[in-house]
Batch of 2 targets.
Target 1
Amino acid sequence: MTRRTPAARPARWTRDDFARPADELAPALLGRLLVRLLPGGERLAGRIVETEAYLGEEDLASHSARGRRSPRNEAMYGPPGLAYVFFTYGMHHCFNAVCGRLGEPAAVLIRALEPIEGADLMRALRDSHSRRRSPIPETDLASGPARLCQALDINRSHNGLDLARAPDLFVESPAAIDPPPRVAVGPRIGVAYAGAWAAAPLRWWLEGNPHVSR
DNA sequence: ATGACGATTTACT
DNA sequence: GTAAATCGTCATA
């Protein structure tokens, strides 16, 4: 009788994998792969090395704080597994995975990736967004929420996409998680406006990984 | 209709 | 370290 070893091959995440609280999902995503298939068939993949949890209506740092619901953040109120992509600062995109239960506006912001597949293509995509002369070092390719969106060509067209079903954007557990990762926790970035919530330890990253932002 | 500002990045002093 | 870039969104009127 053939027995498969579940962890021996890559496994795509299903809706159930996203259906948990943001502060549970955020650390659980570390070490997983965010995979993007470009229209030409090229496969880009990055190991998730930094995440932030946005808990819901009570979280004053969240776009859904105090029950704010609008066309922009509508995806946050959808089923777990949707992509929430928003445009900010007049020029940047950020990518989240919606989580929790349907109707609860929780999400996890992906803040940084370590390029695993297609790094050269990622560099070309990043170059197309800047006028930099020297080649972008690999540690700068996806080490920030807007950088990773450039590197994987993620934009508003992906907002509301179902990560559990979309053919071109999904999360995958790698065949093996190399070294047992040491995880660090700290306050979220860029949410100083959120009062006491700004200090909450809701950001997780792989300790010592050079692809983490800043 | 108007204005303030942002879950950022980059360049420059 | 500080500041510019740049525009969609939302709150207020």
Note: The radius of gyration of chain A is 17 Å.
Target 2
Amino acid sequence: MKKANKILVTRLYRYRDAIYRMKYMGLVKVFSENIADAVGVTSSQVRKDFSLFKLSGNKRGGYVIDDLLKKMNESLGKNRTQDVIIVGCGHIGTALKLYKGFEKKGIRIVAGFDIDESKVTRDAKVPILPFQELSQFIKTKKIKIGILAVPETAAQQVLDQMVQAGIEGILNFAPMRLSHQENVVVNNVNLGLELETIIYFVGEIEKKQYEEK
Amino acid sequence: MKKANKILVTRLYRYRDAIYRMKYMGLVKVFSENIADAVGVTSSQVRKDFSLFKLSGNKRGGYVIDDLLKKMNESLGKNRTQDVIIVGCGHIGTALKLYKGFEKKGIRIVAGFDIDESKVTRDAKVPILPFQELSQFIKTKKIKIGILAVPETAAQQVLDQMVQAGIEGILNFAPMRLSHQENVVVNNVNLGLELETIIYFVGEIEKKQYEEK
DNA sequence: TAGATTGTTAATCGATTAACAATC
DNA sequence: TAGATTGTTAATCGATTAACAATC
């Protein structure tokens, strides 16, 4: 496994999700073609990706779901729970704090942080703590992953502080590129941009349909 | 302009954001190199992308920001406000309903919909309406864009209904591939997947650092 | 066995980057 | 003018797909 770039790893996780669904539907074996259909890629792509991750099946017999999932979980890391913090408890941060979808992925939100003292709730199951305690918390609890949901103007500064304290991976909701060392992993979710591109292509489709008339 | 795929259009929007920031900083002219640095691509890429969108500058003189933004806004469509609905007012849906970042992009959330009648708030500035009124609302208000934030199990069915009523572009938060005709634009935001890939690469980096010791 | 599917190599495709003539 | 930057073409790079030998 040489490179394992982001797009490849993302596909692997999608395959795994799809294969879990098939398992829950009662299937025992799958072919590359089945997985491809479920995820929306070619079967060549599935076999190629599997090959890069040393995931093998049986010539003629496809893949045994349980074996496949076991091997995927070893490569992709499922069996351990990951502690994650949320920095910035505005609308987005709070929604993510309550989001149900993380648990089944082994992702546990352990705390939120906000600069607004009135939001602090120390006794909640997932507490919101004052921003001043952020660095100390990261260090003592050895937190590696954080969600960044602060206003655009604060984002770069807060990222730097998180990294300084020991964070190595960040999911950033501020709609801008943040600079960071290359040993820090940053994924960006830019909600305005997602909608803008949808609006663009819907406009293009409508334009085309208009021209066809 | 032949193809204009998603990745290209996304970059164009990023360039525009960056150029607006430069304008607000007081700059009047920019070079492709400046834009490239701000967005994190090569200057060749910027000039190539501009060329595909018929955005031209002055040989030797770079690009005049105001002219550039004017032309970009013509191509990318800024000057019109887009009405968007949110279907599913759980944690995520509600956060997006209140999210401040859309307004400056000309995106206006006009209503939310939820199957839970107790969430209905007809008199709010952005009302939440009962799910039964969804199709009628889309048709009478000619809504083209929707945010889909319902539980995974309902997502495909609700998408079909939205498209049936006239929706042409959807931002989907359900963590699965939804099937749709090719004249409908669907962008997916998969929050669990984003975190999973971050966790994967952080693990890889730590593994590498361990091996180096 | 005959037929079907994997695993991998080679071919293709598309996107990015480099290079440089045009030119301000 | 000399120098610098655009705009575009050609080269490179990487990712996807097609093809098919291996084999169950």
Note: The two ends of chain A are 52 Å apart (CA to CA).
